[in-house]
């Protein structure tokens, strides 16, 4: 597909598999809340839900996003496998498909070929794009990832891995304290729905609300709110300007647990080649934005 051809809008077709599964997962999440209130609110089950959220969220932010999609650093095989297993439990597609969509988003931000184009409305960017078949349903722009045997393996077995890591393993762990159903509802489905909307907020909220200190060419914005619920992904304006930086929050006080996790592992050899944008480039970008604001012409 040529760049020009890929920017043409296409007629929308419902993705009934995605639509029905999202609906089912939300119903199960509601059932999880009812279960906690009316049946059993085990602290072990709640703790498992929080733990599974953190592990899955880190696998999307640190793994799918910063490692696989943007090559912001390198990681040893056990960490990549961890990302792929808990990334599957996040039920946001295989790493190959996720990265293909995400790289397309960066290449065509705010244009027709952007899968979650905010110009089509807040709810389209948030969840609407998931409910319809992509006009470009092929996996493109990820030749580098297709050479990674672990990534290819996860793509091949994505559905059983998603079911196993997202529902099966939490249920088995819940057996340890006699609450497998609660573990499935809370760590499986309630966690999943909360994580979905946290991730979706980067596509929607972080393209509507916040500041643009580094670039005004796209709708991407820095938002502390989205940083707090997405393990640091909310500094989205910086990220769109400097995509390969392993950090999203560049100041010491910026809430970016993903950055801290990757940096900490680099001290014990688990990650290396962490990409950092030189301070001079960051300052030039900031100055450029300031000049544009003072002299729009």
How would you describe this protein?
The protein has 297 residues and is mainly α. It has one domain. It has 13 helices and two strands, in the order H-H-H-E-H-H-H-H-H-H-H-H-H-E-H. The protein has a two-stranded antiparallel ribbon. The longest helix is centred in the N-terminal third of the chain and has 27 residues, at 43-69.
Shape descriptor reads globular
Number of domains: 1
The rounded distance between the terminal residues' Cα atoms is 36 Å
Mean pLDDT: 94
Query: What is the tally of helical segments?
Result: 13
What structural class results from the helix and strand content?
A: mainly alpha
Over all CA atoms, what is the radius of gyration?
A: 20 Å
The major β-sheet equals:
2 strands, antiparallel
Sequence stretches where pLDDT stays below 50 over 5 or more residues = 1-9
Q: How are the strands of the largest sheet arranged?
A: 1-2
Helix content: 55-70%
- Secondary-structure element pattern, one letter each: HHHEHHHHHHHHHEH
Number of strands: 2
Strand content: under 5%
What's the gist of this structure?
The protein has helices spanning 3-6, 16-38, 43-69, 77-89, 95-107, 122-126, 149-156, 158-174, 180-203, 224-229, 236-241, 257-266, 279-294; strands spanning 74-75, 271-272. It has 297 residues and is an all-alpha fold.
């Amino acid at each position: 597909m040529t760049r020009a051809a890929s920017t043409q809008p296409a007629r929308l077709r419902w993705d009934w598999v995605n639509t029905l599964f999202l609906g089912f997962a939300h119903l199960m999440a509601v059932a999880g809340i009812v279960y906690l209130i009316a049946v059993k609110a085990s602290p072990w089950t709640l703790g498992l839900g929080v733990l599974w959220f953190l592990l899955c969220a880190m696998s999307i932010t640190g793994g799918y996003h910063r490692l696989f999609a943007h090559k912001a650093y390198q990681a040893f095989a056990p960490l990549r496998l961890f990302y792929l297993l808990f990334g599957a439990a996040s039920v946001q597609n295989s790493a190959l498909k996720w990265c293909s969509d995400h790289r397309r988003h960066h290449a065509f931000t705010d244009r027709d070929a952007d899968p979650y184009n905010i110009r089509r409305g807040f709810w389209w960017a948030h969840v609407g794009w998931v409910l319809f078949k992509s006009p470009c349903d092929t996996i493109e722009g990820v030749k580098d990832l297709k050479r990674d045997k672990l990534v290819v393996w996860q793509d091949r077995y994505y559905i059983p891995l998603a079911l196993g890591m997202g529902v099966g393993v939490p249920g088995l762990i819940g057996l340890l304290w006699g609450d497998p159903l609660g573990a499935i509802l809370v760590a499986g489905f309630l966690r999943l729905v909360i994580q979905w909307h946290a991730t979706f907020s980067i596509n929607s909220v972080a393209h509507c609300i916040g500041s643009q200190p580094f670039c005004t060419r796209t709708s991407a914005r820095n938002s502390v709110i989205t940083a707090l619920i997405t393990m640091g992904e909310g500094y989205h304006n910086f990220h769109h300007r400097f995509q390969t930086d392993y950090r999203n929050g560049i100041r010491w006080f910026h809430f970016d647990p993903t950055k801290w996790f990757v940096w900490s592992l680099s001290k014990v050899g688990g990650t290396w080649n962490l990409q950092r944008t030189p301070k001079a480039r960051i300052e030039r970008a900031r100055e450029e934005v300031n000049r544009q604001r003072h002299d729009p012409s």
